Structure formats: structure tokens, C-alpha cells
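A quick aside before the break. I want you to see a complete sequence-to-structure record at least once, exactly as it would be stored in a machine-readable document. Don't worry about memorizing anything.
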Amino acid sequence: MPESNIAEREDTELSTAVVNFEDDAGGGFEESDKDSFAIPYARIVQKLSPQCDETSGDYLEEAKAGMIINSVTEQLYDGKLGMNVIPCHFRRVFVEWNTRENGGGFVAEYDAANGALIETTKDEKKRDITKDGTQLVDTRCHYVIIVNDDGSTSPAVITMSSTQTKKSKKWMTAMQNLLRERKDGTLYNPAMFASIFSMTTVPESNDQGNWYGWKFHHMRYLNEDNPVEVKLYQTARAFRDAVKQGTATIDHAADTTMANDAGPATPAGGVAADDDIGF
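That is the input. The structure line, written in C-alpha cells, reads:
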């Protein structure tokens, strides 16, 4: 049989094959577990971040100081325009790092109760140093759903420490102070994932340097009568549940290429403002 006829027959056979992607839903992920995935970080790009360094493997030509980056997709957001997020859950943890002088790197994470019991002393760089010579960082973790302009979403975590701790406290207080009225006239505090916030960046400085920090703004509540926004609410609530159940976790060990949003002297939370970074 002529070669052209064979090709035509194969093309016909392939074109008439019926494939339904729904039949193979989830295929290939059968042996994955919670340690197979990483929650993206939403980070502020700083002037000394690897995304702005042309010699770094993480360099991004479009990246500018003050932008926000999704650490997994590498999607960039204009810091002045910001990104919209639905806050889902909050955790306070203490993260232990080897100092840069000792090679850097993640050591351990402690919950708030146990982390607060670890004895530390301030060094000349105002870092909290343990008796083992590691750095302990009080870290506030805000788990969010990023809502893009095209309607797509992405789970992420925003970590705040050092100078950004006050921002975290203000954000938590603002969310707790939100009140809505029930049908009987009484007031209640809605779940944090009932709201959409805008997260932008602003320049900040102190006697140790300058950097960009976070600024939040409550845009509005989700619309309970809008099917699209009801789905957003359900997505955010499911992410909250996954974090609480431990099926969605932060991989601090994978965070060593990022530094900090917090300004100088902190090893976690964004991108480094100077050399006082623990990793």
C-alpha cells in the first residue's frame, strides 16, 4: 500500500477516536500527597531580590521593586494597582533559620505557643538568636485566594514579620471589626473569607534601609446572590479547611530563594532589603 494511503488511514482512525477528558479526571496524581505540592507565596519584589538581579537564575526582565510576585507561577502584579485577595485563614508561627554567617537555610517551624517559649537574645543586628546560634522569627501567615482580573484564582500565603508585623495586626483587627446585620437586627462578624481586599505596596524606610511594605484595603463583601462569587466563597472556605486539616502547608525549606517583605534584619516574609537576612 502506498505510504500516503497509510498516513491517510492513520489520520482517519485518530480523528474518529472519542476521548472524554472527564473520564480521566485526576489521572497521574494518584500517588501524590500533601508534600508533593507547594502553596505559592505572594511576595513583594525588592530592589535586591533575585528577580531584579540579571546574574540570578530567578531574574525576570519585567520585575521591578515594589511589584508583587506569585512565587510558583511567577505572575507579577503592579504594586500600585495591587492584587485582589480573599483572606481565608491566619496562623502565627515561629520560624527558625540558620543565619547567613552559618550557611543559611530553614531549620524548623514552631506553633505560636511553643515558639514563644524559646529563649533568645538580641544580637548587634537586632535579630533574635537562640542558644544554638540560629535566628528565630515571629512570622504571621495570611492564607489567601488571589482573584485575578480574568476571574482565575490561585491559593497563596502572605507572610509578614519584623516591620510588617504591625501591618498584620492591623489587618487582623480590621477584619475582626467588620460587622454585618442579621435579619433580626443583631450584628455578627463575618468569616474573613466573606470579603475581598486589595493588597498594594508602599515604600518604607528606617535607619537600617528602605524597602516596600504591604498596604491593605477592604474593597467589599462577596455577593451572596451572585453564583460566581458564591463559588469564590466556597473555594476560599475549602482552602481554609485544607490549611486547618494540615493538607495544605507552607514549605519553608523551599523559600530560601526569597527573602523578606519586612525590611532589614528578617529572614522570612518577602525579599531582602539588605544583608541582615538569615539565609
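Two observations worth writing down. Residues 256-279 have pLDDT under 50 and may be disordered. The first strand starts at residue 42 and ends at 44. We'll return to this after the break.
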